[in-house]
């Protein structure tokens, strides 16, 4: 029973399978050198290429972070240099107050506080006149008029000076205002007294206008007084910080209360 010849058809089928296997093994080598080992080990070439791309991206990120970290100190240094330049060329820190600390409250609020202040001052003057008349045994309204006027002026001066040194009067507290000097500090007694003297500009012009007249009707005096108060208050709009001019001369400021 020597060897039987293989069937012709079976030999051709085996030859075709060998050629297909050789072509499949040679295809990855034609695509690239990196895919060849993957094909030999049975791995998917596309999955390997995707993994390499992810690794490339992951390796690029630390470099970007290093660039950002290196840029941050440079930006901080430039900001510090700019800050130092601004401090060096800026104004005196003692005068570097916020704008809200220099600009006066609205004119409407200041006028409302002023009229409220006038009512309190009138009441205080009436109490002072009563005490003065009892102490001096005043029998006539014209007796001791100059002395009474001087006492009322002193009493009002003490009241306003004491209140301004504390920072505010009752009307100013009601309308959320306070009085400070040009540096934002509390007033000294001397500066508060100076402001009291300069505040006489509210009443002196109309009083001086009618001082030499024998008045029977007080309506013109009242109209002149209120008209002058409104004019003097409106002139504060010409001040850079909208302060009253007597405050500018006294070195004081009306500001919003904290």
UniProtKB/TrEMBL annotation:
It is found in: Membrane. Keywords: Membrane, Transmembrane, Transmembrane helix. Residues 105-251 form the RDD domain. The chain crosses the membrane at residues 114-135, 147-165. It is a multi-pass membrane protein. It comes from the Bacteria. Residues 1-95 are annotated as: Disordered. Residues 1-12 have a biased composition (Gly residues). InterPro entries: RDD. Residues 63-94 have a biased composition (Low complexity). Residues 50-59 have a biased composition (Basic and acidic residues). Pfam families: RDD. This is RDD family protein. It comes from Ramlibacter alkalitolerans. The lineage of its organism: Bacteria, Pseudomonadati, Pseudomonadota, Betaproteobacteria, Burkholderiales.
């Amino acid at each position: 029973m020597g060897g039987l010849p293989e069937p012709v058809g079976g030999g051709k089928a085996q030859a075709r399978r060998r050629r297909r296997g050789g072509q499949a093994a040679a295809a990855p080598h034609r695509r690239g050198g990196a895919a060849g080992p993957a094909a030999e080990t049975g791995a998917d070439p596309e999955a390997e290429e995707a993994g390499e791309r992810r690794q490339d991206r992951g390796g690029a990120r630390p470099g970007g972070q290093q660039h950002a970290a290196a840029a941050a100190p440079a930006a901080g240094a430039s900001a510090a240099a700019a800050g130092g330049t601004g401090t060096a060329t800026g104004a005196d820190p003692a005068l570097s107050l916020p704008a809200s600390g220099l600009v006066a409250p609205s004119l409407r609020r200041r006028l409302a506080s002023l009229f409220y202040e006038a009512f309190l001052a009138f009441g205080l003057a009436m109490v002072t006149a009563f005490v003065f008349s009892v102490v001096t045994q005043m029998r006539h309204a014209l007796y001791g008029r100059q002395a009474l006027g001087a006492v009322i002026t002193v009493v009002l001066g003490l009241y306003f000076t004491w209140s301004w040194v504390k920072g505010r009067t009752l009307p100013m507290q009601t309308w959320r205002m306070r009085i400070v000097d040009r540096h934002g500090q509390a007033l000294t007694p001397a500066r508060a007294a100076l402001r009291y003297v300069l505040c006489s500009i509210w009443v002196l012009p109309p009083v001086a206008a009618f001082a030499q007249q024998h008045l029977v009707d007080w309506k013109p005096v009242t109209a002149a007084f209120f008209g002058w108060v409104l004019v003097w208050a409106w002139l504060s709009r010409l001040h850079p910080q909208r302060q009253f001019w007597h405050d500018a001369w006294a070195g004081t400021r009306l500001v919003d209360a904290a």
